[in-house]
Amino acid sequence: MTGSPAAPGSGWPGDPATGATPVARSAAEVVRLAAGTSHLAELTARVSVCSACPRLVDWRESVARERRRAFADQPYWGRPVPGFGDPRPRILVVGLAPAAHGGNRTGRVFTGDRSGDWLYAALHRAGRAALPTSEHAGDGQRLSDVRVLAAVRCAPPANRPTPAERDTCAPWLDAELALVRPSLRVVVALGGFAWSAVLGALARSGDAVPRPRPRFGHGCEAEVGGLLVLGSFHPSQQNTFTGRLTEPMLDAVLHRAVLRGAEV
Length: 264
Known about the structure:
By secondary structure, the chain is α/β, with parallel strands linked by helices. It has a domain at 84-261: 3-Layer(aba) Sandwich (Uracil-DNA Glycosylase, subunit E), CATH 3.40.470. 37% of the residues lie in helices and 10% in strands. It has helices at 27-35, 40-47, 54-66, 103-106, 114-125, 163-180, 192-204, 237-242, 247-261; strands at 84-85, 91-95, 146-150, 186-190, 221-224, 227-232. The protein has a six-stranded mixed sheet, sandwiched between helices. A hairpin with a 2-residue loop joins β5 (221-224) and β6 (227-232). α1 (27-35) runs parallel beside α6 and α5 (114-125) crosses α9 (247-261). The protein is globular and about 45 Å long. The relative contact order is 0.14.
């Protein structure tokens, strides 16, 4: 396996890209490359090598080189983190962005940090994750009927992407949503940022988003274009440590999603 960051095609478990995968180096190239494929696997590969946002590239790679002391003996992914899970999902779970020492380290969204511990444990309780934990990209985790992704694919400083970075990354979300749309029944937005990103993507796809635009809150719901959009507080340490989000609260949202996803 390569060093940090991981070079495309160098042997990282589950790496979707190769040295020949085209790289977006500007917002215009993100638009072109996101719209230029009809295959989810190719889109995933293109997402994983995107270099369109200089601040995010510098941050994710500097974190990968410097590493946290607890992970000093591990290589870091240090690239954009693509979607993970069922290629024909009934449920799409959308978060904000990868964690600097979570997905940016492991190469899998919501993997290797406390937020991921909560999410994958809840998906396992809901019967949609093979394992109750997700520790690294080669751990054998599999999702059934569920795909997980982040609205912004690179770890941002202070977990806060800028509006320009959000907008530059949006075509990847739009394209992935379009490719999984035929099987999709539910979108779960983890946090207000993801809620806004999901409703924006649906509006750009031509769906009629209710006006006034539905406000985010835990357990909130909106029907958009035949999809049920559900809101949940993000399983961040701040929310879980303070009790703002509890396991029963997250389970209730996912139970609602599973029931809707099972409908024909």
